[in-house]
Amino acid sequence: MKSVVIDSGPLIALFDGSDRYHDQAVAFVRGLRRRLITNLPVVTEVVYMLDFAPQAQRDFLFWGEQSLTIDADTIEDFPRIQALLEKYRDLPADFADASLIALCERLKITSVASVDKDFTIYRTRDRKAFQNLFPRESL
Question: Cβ-count burial of 51 within 10 angstroms (0-12 exposed, 13-18 middle, 19+ buried)?
Answer without folding.
Answer: exposed
